[in-house]
């Protein structure tokens, strides 16, 4: 599934926010195929409501915090 296809599953205003940010910074869609697949999977999780479940917060933190730290270093 493509980035745009996964975006179509989101509701506004989240969809609008993601589209706006992605238009300004294309790298947010992922640089490698692996990154792109992971971005699409997370968008799908958001669209399904999986991310907002309390039991998934630790998983989200475990995934995003190391990436955020890496981006700060770069």
What would you say this structure looks like, in words?
By secondary structure, the protein is mostly helical. It has one domain (3-73). The chain is 66% helix and 0% strand. The protein contains 4 helices and no strands. It has helices spanning 3-7, 14-24, 33-48, 57-73. The chain is globular, with a radius of gyration of 12 Å.
List the helices and strands and how they pair.
Blueprint: H1 3-7, H2 14-24, H3 33-48, H4 57-73
Q: Please give the alpha-carbon distance between the first and last residues.
A: 29 Å
Oligomer: single chain
Q: What is the helix tally?
A: 4
Q: What's the main sheet like?
A: none
What would the average pLDDT be, to the nearest integer?
79
Radius of gyration: 12 Å
Uncertain runs: none
The SSE order reads HHHH
Q: Which structural class fits the helix and strand makeup?
A: mainly alpha
Helix content class: 55-70%
Number of β-strand runs: 0
Number of spatially distinct domains:
1
- Which outline best applies? globular
Binned strand content = under 5%
């Amino acid at each position: 599934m493509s980035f745009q296809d996964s975006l179509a599953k989101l509701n506004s205003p989240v969809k609008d926010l993601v589209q706006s940010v992605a238009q300004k910074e294309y790298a947010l869609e992922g640089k490698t195929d692996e990154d792109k697949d992971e971005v699409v999977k997370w968008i799908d999780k958001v669209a399904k409501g999986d991310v907002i479940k309390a039991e998934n917060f630790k998983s989200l933190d475990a995934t995003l915090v190391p990436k955020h730290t890496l981006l700060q270093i770069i």
